[in-house]
Amino acid sequence: MELVVVLLFFSICAAICVSLFGSAQQMARDSHNLSSAVLVARSAASCYKSTEGNMAETVSLLEGSMEDDVAVCYYDADWEITKEQEKKMFVLQVTPTNKIGEAEIVVADYVDEQILFTLAVKSGRGGGQHGA
Amino acid sequence: MARKRRSTGVNVGSASIVMIFAVLCLTVFSTLSFVTANYERRLAEKSAQAVTQYYAADWQCEDIYQQIYNKLQNGVAADQLGIAGVQASQDATTTILSYTVPIDDEQALSVKLTVLPEGAIRTDQWCVTAIRQWEYNEQIQVWDGE
């Protein structure tokens, strides 16, 4: 009888603890992905501003490619730049808006298309010296 | 004469003790991993919020810069721009324009521009500054033995 009670109690506690471990792992994975998404979005924003909104130069700095006027860069599960279709896990898109010098940066999950982070960036300063 | 075994009511055998130890370990480690993951998530969200706030302030600074540039292009004098938040000070040959856009409660993006005599704008400062002054505590409270 004692063993039955012990096994029952242990299985209930173990189930709760395993679900806690599982949700902790999922949360850690999500936060790692968010941190990495923020990092690549910041990097893209810096590239966009440093090139004064020039999309061709931005995509060259990001080591990505142009797809229908949108600068696109793909990342694998370890957030390394990849061009292989089967390794693509995340995508960074720099989309210019209607106004010159303005763009929207979106980092999303390539597989389930869930948006991880978005950033609006404007570049109008024109380098160190802006001629009037 | 055979001794009669008495039951105490609660039978705690070695299996129960091992189970209690295992459950305790599982609970402690799972709770610790969950709390750590939760703090990591909060840190990541704070970092994302900080970056969003910085670029929102940067956007506003770029907007003001654009307004200044357009007014100068239209022949408005550098010290008579009339843009809210932009302060102008006159140097010997140049006009220095400065403005600040808050990022959050602690930081602001400060911009300082110099309008050169030929009409060009030189960006002298575009950086994050602290809004509040640091209050340094120069006294260390040590135990004097009483």
Q: Strand count, sense and closure of the main sheet of chain B?
A: 4 strands, antiparallel
> What would you report as the Rg of chain A, rounded to the nearest angstrom?
22 Å
Order of adjacent strands in the largest pleated sheet of chain A: 1-2-3-4-5
How many helix segments of chain A? 2
The assigned structural class of chain A equals alpha+beta
Shape of chain A: elongated
What order do the SSEs of chain A take from the amino end to the carboxyl end, as H and E? HHEEEEEE
Helix content of chain A: 40-55%
Summarize the SSE layout with pairings.
The complex is a heterodimer of chains A (132) and B (146).
Chain A: H1 2-50, H2 55-62, E1 65-67, E2 70-75, E3 90-96, E4 102-109, E5 115-122, E6 129-130
Antiparallel strand pairs in A: 1-2, 2-3, 3-4, 4-5
Chain B: H1 14-73, E1 87-90, E2 95-102, E3 107-115, E4 121-130
Antiparallel strand pairs in B: 1-2, 2-3, 3-4
Question: What's the gist of this structure?
Answer:
The complex is a heterodimer of chains A (132) and B (146). Chain A has 132 residues and is α+β, with helices and mostly antiparallel strands.
Please, could you describe this protein's structure?
The complex is a heterodimer of chains A (132) and B (146). Chain A is 43% helix and 26% strand. Chain A is an alpha+beta fold. A five-stranded antiparallel sheet of chain A has the order 1-2-3-4-5, covered by helices on one side. In chain A, helix 1 (2-50) packs across helix 2. The longest helix of chain A has 49 residues, at 2-50. The relative contact order of chain A is 0.14. With 146 residues, chain B is an alpha+beta fold. Chain B is 41% helix and 21% strand. Chain B has one helix at 14-73, and strands spanning 87-90, 95-102, 107-115, 121-130. The radius of gyration of chain B is 33 Å and the shape is elongated. Chain A binds chain B through residues 2-3, 6, 9-10, 13-14, 16-18, 20-21, 23-25, 27-28, 30-32, 34-35, 37-38, 41-42, 45, 101, 117, 119-125, 128-132, and chain B through 11, 13, 15-16, 19, 22-23, 26-27, 29-31, 33-34, 36-38, 40-41, 43-45, 47-48, 51-52, 55-56, 58-59, 62-63, 65-66, 69, 72-73, 115, 118-123, 126. Strand 6 (129-130) of chain A pairs antiparallel with strand 4 of chain B, so a sheet runs across the interface.
